[in-house]
Amino acid sequence: LRVGWGYGPASVIDVLNRIRGPFNMASPSLAAAEAAVRDTAYTEKCRLENARMRVWLAKALGDLGIPSDPSQANFILARFTDESDADDCNAYLQNDGLIVRKVAGHGLPNCLRITVGDEAMCRRVAHSIAGFKGARDVVEPEVDPNSASTPKATV
């Protein structure tokens, strides 16, 4: 289930309503979306987990020589040495069943946008990138599942 919503001036919303498809959403989908929005405790839990794993993933990649920009989003912008390195890592990750986003079209040819997932997915991405970089050992998170504090990466 994927739901989107818009907030804006009445004139903009009016135009969006005129160009949207004839069937907006089914009632069960709307009810599920409303219940999800109202579950603020779950939203906060997800926000804290995302922040924790974002810090960990950035550190893990930094330890592999791949810096990233500071982020408050659900992704990090990993900066490779050049476009070729980013493209090669992207291909390596795809061969490992992982999909990240190239952002060359946004003027960042040496970068990959990597979504922050749960701990298992962040670990998988870090292991795969460690393999790409030829690291002998892979990154293992030291993560306290009950803590939102900054995790430590070990190699």
Give a verbal description of the structure.
It is built from five helices and five strands, in the order αααβαββαββ. It has 155 residues and is mostly helical. β2 and β3 form a beta hairpin. The longest helix has 24 residues. It is globular, with a radius of gyration of 19 Å. The C terminus is likely disordered.
Primary descriptors:
three-stranded antiparallel sheet, 155 residues, mainly alpha, 5 helices, 5 strands, two-stranded antiparallel ribbon, globular, single chain
- Residue share in helix: 40-55%
Sheet with most strands: 3 strands, antiparallel
Number of helices: 5
- Count of individual beta strands: 5
Give me the Rg, rounded.
19 Å
Strand order of the largest sheet: 1-3-2
Mean pLDDT: 87
Strand-residue fraction?
Answer: 5-15%
SSE sequence, one letter per element: HHHEHEEHEE
Q: What's the gist of this structure?
A:
This protein is mainly alpha-helical and 155 residues long. The protein has 5 helices and 5 strands, in the order αααβαββαββ. The radius of gyration is 19 Å and the shape is globular.
Helices, strands, pairings?
Elements: H1 10-19, H2 27-38, H3 40-63, E1 75-79, H4 83-95, E2 101-102, E3 111-115, H5 119-133, E4 140-142, E5 152-154
Antiparallel strand pairs: 1-3, 2-3, 4-5
Helix pairs in contact: 3-5, 4-5
